[in-house]
Amino acid sequence: MKLSVDNKLNLLRELMIKNSITAYLVTSSDFHQSEYTGNFFKTREYISNFSGSSGTVLITLDNAYLWTDGRYFLQAEKELSGSEFHLFKTGLKDTPTVQEFIKNTMKNNDTLAFDGRTVSYNLMLEFISASKEKFFQLKINMDLINEIWENRPPLSKEKVFLLEEQYSGEKAVTKLKRLRHIMINKNATCHILSSLDDICWLFNLRGKDIKYNPVVLSYAIIFIDKTILFIDKSKISTEIELYFNNINVEIQDYNGFYKYLHKIDSSSVVLLDYNKINSSIYQALPKEIHIINEINPENSMKSIKNLVEIKNNYRAHIKDGVAMTKFIYWLKNNISKNKISELDVVNKIEAFRKGQEGFMELSFETIAAYGKNAAMMHYLPNNKNFSFLEPKNLILIDSGGQYLEGTTDITRTISLGNVDPQIKKHYTYVLKSLIALSKSKFPHHTFGGSLDSIARNVIWEIGLDYRCATGHGVGHFLNVHEGPNILRPSADCIISPDMVTTIEPGIYIDNSHGIRLENETLTTKSFKNEYGLFLEFKTLTFVPIDIEAIELCFLNKEEINWINSYHEMVFEKISPFLNREEAAWLKSQTKNI
């Protein structure tokens, strides 16, 4: 029998009382601090019914709380409705963080518990500090959700595969050599990796352990003279076993990782990232070792795409552009003829992508939000909750694909007929924002926060803003969200040449409408003068922007020229792969305005 949220909370509280626990923390993470997780790790969703990708739950004996960010405020309110959960809206004035709330509410001799494998050591340090100040206890090895979750999904057993050099552009042995050079320069004798995208990038390994993210559940320890990969051995073929043997990588069982940590020589100098390792990893390490706590070198290494990756990325975007253009043509031609639901949109887009050679899977769950549903930034239709489209208003579609050649992420907001003038104005300002940043030139070493303000300033002009980043890095046939590059007000990362970053401003009006336009871009060198090297964004996405939703009076000549130039490029890249009717339609959609 399926339990209600309140029934699950009652069962959890019985265990809390039995174990003398005052408050129990449930994060969104797996053992690897992944943004998205496999079904086995969806403990926060299980206990709260909130399905967004980001959120933290705290349960006390009397109350239940959930924190999430601005992308999910409306969705969380809807999914928590009817339960005892109280929603904390992260980032708003007077909203305490989880850490602040715990520090302010825990009392002398209280006990905070959690599964340390799902809490980063950086977060753990904050809890340790608060516990010393407020004299409460910590229990970090308590997976209580496992004890109440009947028929919990098992860990993935999907086979792994190699990303060949024709797609990766660099052998794993070369990457390991570069990594060891960095380790030697830092006087590190050992490097511990638990972040899945870093591991998969380093070894040119891919898998299917997390839906939409082609990664493999694994850990790695890199020494100066040897490398150990901890992975479920049943996932590895004889061919891949030989591959690892040839590059001097020892394979050990996934579940043996923590036991091995105890064996690391106490004189070791260990390079790791407190934000990426979980608390149980730290606790298992010998206390005598010296730790260098820095961002994993792989984080920046993989963000700078090599020439092969860049060329492949273009190919992936042409394929994706063909699929999306075919979809938009289908939608525009059928909206007045057939009854179409948001679920139909989701399925149709996937079908068009599956028709492209080299397509592996989607890069995230497709957002297809009609009308007021689009006010929820990450609204996801499902069999119980979806809307039918009408030949009027807008639909926001945020989707992407995983191809052997690369990862795509694109948003188009599409007019289905008559659109309210105020909404068209908002659409045009989102487009102006996209253009403003897309055509900017900026000095090398510019921070992501500075670039964010270029896009956001256009939206500020009409007294609005959006509660999310303007853009993020994208992996190469890896995670659709990748650091260190991100465009948001607080971002202190440097945007460097050959990074792939999205630009995706938006406007979201509660219970009315939502608009987002998103392109992927490649940072390229623009020119050099006495002030140094300047960079610019080169657009990688080749999908028409809906000119029927534009209010021309709000655009200046430069912006109109940008749209015309972009559409000329879209037609040139995409039309050769369309049939006659589709190509004629695309020609009409990319004509000069």
List the helices and strands and how they pair.
Layout: H1 5-18, E1 23-26, H2 43-48, E2 56-60, E3 64-68, H3 73-80, E4 85-89, H4 98-105, E5 111-113, H5 121-134, E6 137-139, H6 144-148, E7 161-162, H7 165-168, H8 172-185, E8 190-193, H9 196-203, E9 205-206, E10 218-223, E11 227-231, H10 238-246, E12 249-253, H11 257-261, E13 269-272, H12 279-284, E14 290-293, H13 297-303, H14 307-334, H15 342-354, E15 359-362, E16 367-370, E17 394-399, E18 401-403, E19 406-407, E20 410-415, H16 421-438, E21 441-443, H17 448-460, E22 471-473, E23 482-487, E24 500-503, E25 506-509, E26 513-516, E27 519-529, E28 532-539, H18 557-574, H19 580-589
Parallel strand pairs: 1-5, 3-4, 5-6, 8-13, 11-12, 13-14
Antiparallel strand pairs: 1-2, 2-3, 7-9, 8-10, 10-11, 15-18, 16-17, 17-20, 18-19, 21-28, 22-23, 24-27, 25-26, 27-28
Mean pLDDT: 97
Radius of gyration: 25 Å
β-strand amount: 15-25%
Strand order of the largest sheet: 4-3-2-1-5-6
Low-confidence stretches: none
Count of strand segments: 28
Structural class: alpha+beta
Q: What's the total helix number?
A: 19
How far apart, in Å, are the first and last alpha carbons?
Answer: 59 Å
Describe this structure in words.
- It is a single chain.
- Helices cover 35% and strands 21% of the residues.
- The chain has 19 helices and 28 strands.
- The strands form 8 sheets. A 6-stranded mixed β-sheet has the order 4-3-2-1-5-6, sandwiched between helices.
- It is globular and about 65 Å long.
- The chain starts with a helix and ends with a helix.
